[in-house]
Amino acid sequence: MNTIPSATFYGSSLKGYTPPALRENARKLYGDASNAKCFCFPTQSAALEAAAKLPALQLFSEDLDTSGTRHYLLATYEDFWHIYKKRAKKHFYEVIRENVSCKLYFDLEYIRTCNTHVQEEELIATISKLVASGLKQILKRKESSLLPYLKCLVLDSSSNEKFSKHLIFPKIVFPTNRIAGKFVWKLLQMSDSCSNLLVLKPAQNEMQTVLAIDLSVYSRNRCFRILGSSKYGENRPLTIGQTFDQKLFYETLVCYLHSDDVLCIDDVQIGYIQSLDDNSLSSTLKGYSIQKVFHDAINIPHSKGSPYPLIDKFIESVICDGQVKGSIRSVLFLSSSQKLVYNIQKYRYCHRIGRHHKSNHILMIVELNTMLYYQKCLDPECRAIDYRSPPRLLPEQLWSEFQSITK
């Protein structure tokens, strides 16, 4: 089977950037991890510009002092892991870039002394129940069929003074961080149980009622602390209750998407979630404006395309027949496994049954490392046997054009 050479896929070096991709700098920064290759940048803007040219690489940041100064690292997941595991003091973050696919996640925090009434287990259970209820409304399925996708990883960096946890749902993914935030916002409007998510926060001479969920994490190009790391100057690393290996570390990363056996939730589907007419959350918060906090997250423009528009165009050409013309509703880029997962609307033809599904949608999968594509289904019967159509090669012309845009 043909495979694209790694040098062709990742492209040439970022000539002209300062500093460039550097074994020398890596040696200076990471000692005996210098064999791991990475690009290092002093500013986020330079790192984001480079990341846009190399979509197969991932962006991370590291605290350099307590003032918030950071530098940025662009590397494969494999190389970053080798760098990270040998770092004695870890102060690293995953950069959740705008318009990059991500998992469902929550950032929870509050001051314990102000909230002795809060039941921590009930707080997490409420969020899990909200997620399950939201998925039931979107997918019209029984909760029992959703259980494999409700797996929740809990990362903890709490102290005696502060409750601080990250919740990661590795089987629920979104085309962008903005859409993940919109899903969370809709969940909060869905149920009166959201009152369980309210906590007290000291502000000047009074206590404010706020959410235990930090909604600002769903803003653009957010730095999100990763497993094993603490903030600079603190000794509260995120832990998961066990020694973690490479596989578990990857699973906790918000943007690490490897398997296509996930629930992909897009902007249109989120609209199926019904809000309460009289939302108790709004009345309880009174003057606290969630809408203001969340403004940036819900107004970032969203693209339905992948980093590879030529492939997008080809997929659009195959999802049509004499009667039905489909379109791409959303696309996930699974960078770790080098796959594009297209969520298709209107066109529902399934090769297993030899006709269009009546209501269930289909997916088109492109494997970038082999240049093969095939069809999968959201139909429960097709999903139960992990059906995929016989793979086909992308056209030769597209292959050559793809190589030219990744050089």
Short description:
With 407 residues, the chain is α+β, with helices and mostly antiparallel strands. The protein has 15 helices and 18 strands.
Helix/strand layout:
Blueprint (H helix, E strand, L loop, with lengths): L5 H5 L12 H8 L8 E3 L2 H10 L4 E6 L6 E6 L1 H9 L6 E5 L5 E10 L8 H20 L3 H4 L6 E4 L5 E13 L2 H12 L9 E6 L2 E6 L10 E4 L20 H7 L10 E2 L2 H4 L9 H6 L4 H4 L1 H4 L10 H10 L8 E8 L4 E7 L3 E2 L4 E2 L5 E6 L4 E6 L2 H5 L7 E2 L2 H11 L1
Parallel strand pairs: 7-11
Antiparallel strand pairs: 1-3, 2-3, 2-4, 4-10, 5-7, 6-7, 8-9, 12-13, 13-16, 14-15, 16-17, 17-18
Helix pairs in contact: 5-7
Count up the helices.
Answer: 15
What is the strand tally?
18
Going across the biggest sheet, name each strand in turn. Answer: 1-3-2-4-10
Helical/strand content category: alpha+beta
**What is the total domain count?**
3
- Terminus-to-terminus distance: 22 Å
Q: Detail the poorly predicted runs.
A: 1-28, 30-34, 284-302
Nearest-integer average pLDDT = 81
Radius of gyration: 22 Å
Shape: globular
Q: What percent of residues adopt helix (DSSP H or I)?
A: 25-40%
What characterizes the major β-sheet?
5 strands, antiparallel
Beta-strand share of residues: 15-25%
Protein name: DNA-directed primase/polymerase protein
GO molecular function: chromatin binding; DNA-directed DNA polymerase activity
Catalytic activity: DNA(n) + a 2'-deoxyribonucleoside 5'-triphosphate = DNA(n+1) + diphosphate; ssDNA + n NTP = ssDNA/pppN(pN)n-1 hybrid + (n-1) diphosphate
Pfam families: AEP_C962R (PF23162), Herpes_UL52 (PF03121)
